């Protein structure tokens, strides 16, 4: 079995709308920190210089959103109310694990320009690869947006899905849709421009707002989708971090290919 990393990194050097703050305590600083914490919380005095080389363990402190790096959006991210079930969308810690380890199918949308891709384009790609997604398959969209990772263009130049395209996949029983772009919707600027021209509210973040009608999850900011050897014949593992009450959770998404 071969493992293919489908994740993009959390990198404080990247251009991000919500900048990442990453503080690293060295093993020496970790020793001092440990000594201070033991004294404050447990009343234990311990000289860090008694440790080998005066070092303990390194420590990383991060400040970031749950939508930084590769992550899974929970239904509660899409709104406070849902048209299904009891009307209360689930948080990321409540989602069934079986959704996140399933057969995968990758669709090549690298020829799509900035904006929203429709159902007809997805149908064309599915016909090309000769496959119809099965219930609970994880569908991955290879848009090529990863080429701008770490730059401002990563947030402005990519292709998302429109409402009918999302509904088409959900009609097939898909519960998890992934993309290598910043968002499953088109870029903010593109959406606002189309809305101002038409006054049509259906262009306002339709991929996300469809989640208010039917329960599903998005995996955004994937990476390395071009390394998948074929459109099908692999499994995807993308278990989200269990954040109580969270609208999203980071994931180390991986494809498993049987050789």
From TrEMBL:
SUPFAM superfamilies xrefs: Putative cyclase
Pfam families linked: Cyclase
GO MF annotation, one: arylformamidase activity
UniProt xrefs under InterPro entries: KFase/CYL, KFase_sf
One record GO biological process: L-tryptophan catabolic process to kynurenine
Protein name, entry field: Cyclase family protein
Source organism (scientific name): Actinomadura craniellae
């Amino acid at each position: 079995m071969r493992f293919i990393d489908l994740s993009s990194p959390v990198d404080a050097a990247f251009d991000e709308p919500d900048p990442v703050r990453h503080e690293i305590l060295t093993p020496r600083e970790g020793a001092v920190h440990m000594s201070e914490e033991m004294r404050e919380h447990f009343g234990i005095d311990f000289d860090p210089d008694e440790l080998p080389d005066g070092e303990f363990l390194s420590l990383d402190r991060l400040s970031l959103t749950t939508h930084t790096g590769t992550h899974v959006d929970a239904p509660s991210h899409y709104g406070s109310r849902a048209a299904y079930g009891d009307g209360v969308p689930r948080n990321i810690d409540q989602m069934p694990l079986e959704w996140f380890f399933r057969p995968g199918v990758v669709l090549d949308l690298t020829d799509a320009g900035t904006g929203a891709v429709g159902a007809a384009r997805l149908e064309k790609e599915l016909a090309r690869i000769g496959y119809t997604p099965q219930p609970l398959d994880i569908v991955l969209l290879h848009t090529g947006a990863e080429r701008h990772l770490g730059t401002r263009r990563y947030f402005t130049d990519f292709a998302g899905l429109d409402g009918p395209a999302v509904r088409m996949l959900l009609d097939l029983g898909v519960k998890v849709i992934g993309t290598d772009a910043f968002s499953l919707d088109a870029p903010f600027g593109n959406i606002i421009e189309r809305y101002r021209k038409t006054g049509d509210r259906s262009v306002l973040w339709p991929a996300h707002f469809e989640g208010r009608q039917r329960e599903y999850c998005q995996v955004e900011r994937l990476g390395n989708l071009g390394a998948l050897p074929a459109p099908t014949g692999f499994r995807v593992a993308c278990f989200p971090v269990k954040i109580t009450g969270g609208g999203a959770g980071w994931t180390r998404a991986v494809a498993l290919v049987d050789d």
